[in-house]
Amino acid sequence: MLAEPAAEEGALSDESLGEQDVAGSGGGSARGRVLGSTPLRMVIGIAAVAVGVLLFLAPMHVRTVALVTGVGFVLVGVATALIPLAAERVRVPLSARVLGGVLGVLGAAMVVWPSAGTPGLAFLIGTALIVHGVLALWQVVRAGGADQRVTAALAAIASITVGVVAFAWPVLTIVLFRFGVAAWFIFFGLQLLFTALVRRRHRHRWIRTIAAASALTIAVLLAYGSVRLLSGVPLPEPGPFYTAPDNVPREPGRLLRSEPLDQGVPDGARGWRILYTTTHPDGTPAISSGTILAPEDPSDTPFPLLTVAHGTTGIAPKCAPSLSPTPFDDGAGTALQEMVTQHGWVAVTSDYIGLGTQGTHPYLVGEAEARNVLDASRAARQFDEISTTTDTVVWGHSQGGQAALWTGQIAGSYAPEFHIKGVAAFAPAADLFGLAESDKSEVGGKTISAYIANTWNDLYPLLQLTDHLTPGSKHGVEKIRNLCFNGKDALSAILRGSQIPNQVFPDQLLDGEFGTLLKGQTPVGPFPAPVLVAQGLADPLVKPELQQNWVDARCESGEPIDYRTFPGLSHMSLVAADSPLTPQIVQWTLDRWTGATPTPTCDAG
């Protein structure tokens, strides 16, 4: 990707040098200067190759990568400024000397400033590559032969392209661009060695042209892939169904409209979207959407009711599960479908406010989510197509696990018409403050923190969260706001989170009022029914030790928790179709309905 300085007008070829001497500054012929540069070419070429190989193979921390990369750019700068890149070149053009000086300065900055961290290193690498490409393009304008112009232009554009991509992936510079820059150093070093050993370059120009074209192709593909990955995938925006009618009842839990679902409904079931009234976190009237999944065959008696709180899908309206092509796959989706199609239950899921409907999604605000969940079940009881019981079992995974626990906790006061027979929480975000502390420097934690920053900034404006983020975090936080956390879009959200250089919330923010609010989202009970908590012991997001601490605290307070752990299972594999939890949660739910004796584990071990 290093653009080859094109021959300036007046440069002499090997043939012309064979016929005449051209005086140079300080005495000596042009031939003498060219031949004299051969040892320097070889020394710098070997050194550049060594730097590239070292970057490829040696394990390094950020500072070491910065030091080695800086040394490499200094070598490239020296070579570019002091010796002609082509063996038949008589002199180094002014543009190359300028380019070499700039590259040398940037390389030196990396050497003396290795503690800048990955964003600083990305900035320096990106700047060096862009400066190199721009100045190399300037040389192209003054080039001699057309073939030289093509080769140099292709390589220069490739250098600029990779430099721009470096700015898009500041944190991944160490992982990704370390190897890209390593290849760049090796290519440059081999080119110096090649020109030192092979005198008649025109015989091999086609090889360099192909190499430059290949470098540009790779750079363009890298840039295209970066745009696609970081932009997410197009998702359907909410249509007229999600718009509030003119006259909205103030009473929460009123069904406003419904429509059949035409995709993602399992065989043996029927599905609908619903729109209903609920309440904002401050208690004011609001509207939410959701789904109902019922057995295909009608029943003369009310169906048992399964109340479901879904996990994190994002915070934008387009992230609503009811808009997804697979609306019933969230969390323990296989177990849910089995409950409906094989055991004759009706499952009701709230999208929560702000997903589908307008408004700020109360992300990880436990009581607000629980109201949305309970009001969805209220709305389902008004649906003419089915009839459900007021007895219900509540499920939830991750964010939904926290919401399920809160649903059990407030049901008696908020929706006393329902009788909660059991609460099952899978990898619940029960200790939100603990998760914010333990996950603050990890990719998943940064993504979740970005969702919290965007929503809580609106829900708790006095905190002014987005004005108090760590340096360098704000751009990534803003980008993540419109990325969902379900389907293919989840990868984009995670990758954006990976490019936030530091923890999103500074420690002083966690130690203040914001931290107090996070602690207030911990469900502590009392719970009106048996509680099952399932946790994968290989969960990188909801840490098992935090979950154990929460369970121990609930047991000490007299809450009989049935705590089940699953070695080797992560946050998502815990609720996968082949998870050992799947048959267990089905049986546990059926046992709650029949009144079987609970199996708490507080006294075990």
UniProtKB/TrEMBL annotation:
Gene3D superfamilies: alpha/beta hydrolase (3.40.50.1820). Keywords: Membrane, Transmembrane, Transmembrane helix. Pfam families: DUF308, LIP. Residues 1-30 are annotated as: Disordered. The chain crosses the membrane at residues 40-58, 64-87, 94-113, 119-138, 150-169, 175-194, 206-227. PANTHER family: LIPASE 5, PTHR34853. This is Lipase family protein.
